[in-house]
Amino acid sequence: MIFGKNVNKYYGKYFFFFLFGLLALLAVNWFQLEIPRICGEILDGIGEEAKADPNSLFNNPEGIKRLMIELAFIAGIMFVGRFTWRYCIFGVAARIEADVREQMFKHSLCLSNAYYKHHKTGALMALFTNDLQVIRQSFGSGTVMAIDAVFLGSFALYRMFTTNWILSCFGIIPMALIAVISGIVGRILKEKFKERQEAYEALSDFTQENFSGIAVVKAFVKEVHEIRHFDKINEENRAKNINYVKYSTLLNVLLTVVISSIFLLLFAGGSYFVLNGFMGKEFTVGQMWEFIGYFDAVIWPFMAVAQLINMRAQAKASLNRVDEFLAEKIEIVDTDVEDVDQIRGKIEFKNLNFQYPDGSNTVLSDISLVIPEGTMVGIIGKTGCGKTTIVDLLLRTYNLEDGQIFIDDKDIMHIPFKKVREAIGYVPQDNFLFSDTISNNIAFAYEKLDEEAIVSAAKLADVHSNILEFQEKYDTILGERGVTLSGGQKQRVSIARAIVKNPPILIFDDSVSAVDTKTEETILSNLRNLREGKTTIMIAHRISTVKTLDLIVVMDEGAIVGVGGHEELLSSCPLYQEMVHLQSLEAEINGGDE
Predict the structure, then answer these.
(1) Tens digits of per-residue pLDDT, 94-107?
(2) Which of 352, 379, 415, 453 has minimal CB crowding within 10 Å?
(3) CATH code where residue 404 lies
(4) 75 and 158 assigned to the same domain
(5) Crossing angle, helix 487-499 and helix 517-530, to 10 degrees?
């Protein structure tokens, strides 16, 4: 069992599961202690001394039959009881694990981009797998251990003392060593478990990055280097695990030695009482057997205490990590929102200044720009000039001060952020695709979309013919991050995904860089027809992408240095002139090479 602010509610939610599991476990604990009593009675009743007693079991077959029926009845109760408590307690542990994982996943979707820039995927996956498994074990096995330690231990101790209190003292006093040993080793185990989890995080993160970047590793012939690096991390993980297992094994060995020594002491003391009597009364072999049976039953509760200390140390460490994750502040929230029926697409920047939460340098400086509704706008500039940051701010992935960005003359900070994102179609730079069918990737914005709309969007993105070349066509399953497709195909599928949404505002973040100029012209022509009357923003590096658009914005070092049409900027913006000149020379050189 484990308690914490993020898990306490599940004891109430699954109260009846816990209750029925507890009652079933208590019933099993009580009735299993009847077995040593019955076996002791049978042992005394069929011995040599019982032959002369006409009332003994030796001379009373009906008595033996009665005890056999009683044993069968107890076995039936234990069978039903064990099934019930395992279904209830272990079942509810699995449910709690699923609930906490769902809670964590929902929270993960609410965290800002800044969080994921500072936390690696491997560490997060360790939270969602190893740590939750440990918490599940605490709710399942940990609950059983706690109940057995209290109730089965109490029941067995009571019967032991009523059978022979001197032997009970001989058995119980040394068992106190278990608590001392467990307390000392348990503290060490907690730290060793934390180290083991951190090593697993590092291993998971390294392998995840290598799997995702396998093409880069092969292209740079770094396989041997990565194998050596993996060996080092894997060795650290192995060492941490073995170190943890050493202390865990040490605890189990010490417990086994203590318990075996106690058994030896009890057999010696019991044999003495059988031969010489106990407190002036006869102490039979059957009573000795009964007492050993009770002590055998009480071993598990004491062992459970030791394992519970170990498990709780692990679970507490894991729960602390989960709590830290769930305590991460959700930065993007709605405040003082206004009712917005429909977003049309007018965008205005007023003296916008921005720096990332973890940075000291200003990324955008005094950005002032009006994008009328229905305009096709190109934003161009050198790498790192702040083009993508503008997109991030329009998508409300970061918070702003009031009065800097307006959509349809309403402050973006007072429009529900989900409303803003629903009104925007976005084609990101990395063209992220999911490991799903091409059809489902294109229809990602919808729960269900008819095939005709999917095919139409693919045609507008000029990728339909490529999709038909696959054996499964639109039902082709893409590899991780769309690895099945080429760079240009991934870009065009991403464009189709945004087109099919048909939003009031559509943003392309350098989204045609991997296609040839002919395909680019086809896509731009289709977009001009499709997007008539709707706002479209195209971030690009190539002049060919933006020169035919209604408005071109030139950026440099986080500031706007030119706004206008292609011809206007050629005559008024030195940076634009330089970019046109350099790209013209590049085209001539490439043409000469061909």
Answers:
(1) 998 898 899 889 88
(2) 453
(3) 3.40.50.300
(4) yes
(5) 0
